[in-house]
Request: fold
Amino acid sequence: MASTQKQKKAAPARAKVRPAGFPTRQQVMDFITESDTPAGKREIAKAFGLKGQEKIALKALLKDMADEGLLDIGPARAFHKMGGVPKVTVLRIVDVDDTTLIATPERWEAEGQPAPRIRVVERGKRGALTIGDRILARTEEAGKGWLAHPMKKLAKATEMLLGVVEEMADGKLWLRPVDKRIRKDTPISDIGTAKKGDLVLAEPTGRPPRISARVTDILGDPFAPRSFSLIAIHKHGIPHVFPEAVEEEAVTASKLVLHEDKREDLRHLPIVAIDPVDARDHDDAVWAAPDEDPANEGGYKAIVAIADVSYYVRPGSALDREARKRGNSVYFPDLVVPMLPHQLSSDMCSLRAGQDRAAMACHLVIDAQGKVTRFRFSRAIIRVAAVLAYENAQAAIDGEQDNELLEPALKPLWACWALLRKAREKRDPLALDLPERRVVLDEWGKIVSVAVRERLDAHMLIEDYMIAANVAAAKALEAKKAPVMYRVHETPGRDKLVALKEYLATFDIDFALGQVIRPSTFNQLIKKVGELEEKEQIMTQILRSQTQAYYAPQNMGHFGLALGSYAHFTSPIRRYADLLVHRALVGAYDLELPAPKDKAIPDRSSLSQEDYENMGRVGEMISGHERRAMEAERETIDRYVAAFLSAHVGEVVKARITGVQNFGFFATVEGLGGDGLVPVSTLGAEHFFFDEAGKALQGIESGDRYTVGQRLELRLAEADPINGALRFELPDNPSPRGGPLKRDRTRPKIHRGRPTNIRHIGSSRGKHKKR
Reply:
């Protein structure tokens, strides 16, 4: 036995022994194919014991084999079989097929052959990779395709550059980045047909420190309408063009019969949709009426009707794969990048007034205390009585506007909501009423105004109905032990709570870390602050202490809403998570409808086995897509705000400090938003201490203190619409670098580096703090 084991262990070592003498073509090919590491000329020579003139002959042989189409050369001068992929190579992830990431070799020089699409096999913790990432991976042939096993995630060294072509005084062209976090311009080595002022995509060439840019795509005028959104779309790699097959499938799916005889008919009810005035789609509608059941005296019945997207977008279809790849719709001030083609998102799946629509109905029974005592789900057919803007619904309730639906629809909705609000107040969810900016554009895409959205009762009404339906969906699936894509919001971590405690201490507000942290804990803090000037900044800091919500099949509860089970059910037009919850309900409650006659459409609309098996992976993917969309939307609004303010450069504005660092402080224009920097170098010649715990800068000689939340007047020195950046200065200390941004303006040099007038005092509050 022992002898046999030794022989087995020795076998691999003997397999690597090569015959003496110069190798044949086949022997070279076998070695390259079997090698577990990149096989370059040096490795081949060493394996066959070649020296001197034999190495020269090997070089000639490898060149002949390459010329004959037997070999190709990859990264690090390593050879591999022509048409194949090196055993170890750098790949770029370019696509998602269902839940499998697809990569292609970063360098592919096989003439006349398309780069192979390689399936990436993720092990251990998943979700760390996404489209655009670069990986070092081991590859292997599997059947007719290739598999890649990631070894290491690499830096995105060869990211495309997005910027504006600028001409300097000396006539040289530079690429000015649109990302305000990138503070360095790149010289342009190849401009192609682009012109000064064009918004372009470019690829970096050369090696550090001499990197230059080669323009590959011209995106147009960066100041033209919709350009700000296009910048965000390209920068974040948001899929925005539907493949032809997906568009065609959307047309086919939109023609599916509704099966009125097999759906619950709710067309007799005055169901209404209440949405923003500029809403592009309508995926939810509501109805309520007093419950006639004597056992529920004072209670109400309600229906939350949601577009039945799962009926049209079925597991395994081209529509489904594209929707999963996008994860959600992305909303910009001037356009929407929808998760589904317009044939569905703004037509057949949109709950338009007066038109029959397929819906998933959540029926709720609410008692006099506002508790949902019963719920059920059905596939229904509805006819929305009216689509109302929040403002119009509120005006009708307040008696400021006539509306024929006031008595039959709106008053019962508000009366039922009064009960739901009771339950909400008892639950005491996190109450952070922070302003939301709204960019208003005219028909030509020009900015009319940037304003804070008014928070109405109508907004909170719809929010509470949606929360009730989302909770019901999660509990309904749990009752059937069916899979759930939960919306998870975990309790804040200790590190963030410690930072919050230190911050609150600067306002002499005590925050005990030993207590059980609940949403009500933060609400009590806000009440303690009252109407102090610092209320908004403290709420902002509380928001920053929270964890980021995400999607997962494991239930960790929703801390912010103070709910034990919560899933997103109410927006399947624009969120893939909701679509999965709909499919799970169809399967759990036997709501499947007859299979389509068109065989191009999959038979079932319920959760597939693949959906079930990949819930964790899909949750990670769509959580990442959501974060991408939020960042893109926020950056675009910043650009619009900067464009709006560019006409006010040089003016003094009312501002509020939003952040403090050792190099200066950030401030935002009251009522508009858009952060801008006040560099510490512009605060005067005196030295400043940086109080990290107090989030403040304080002058040593003057005692002047600049702290988060402080309101002050600042002069707007620069507003850059291209990257959304603002720069402010104190009214009494103007710097010579101000002035409005113009298309042909050469920007002055800005000296960077650590300011000479700053000292850091770490995390202590410091002896210079004013009381």
Summary: The mean pLDDT is 83. The chain is about 30% helix and 25% strand. The first strand starts at residue 71 and ends at 73.
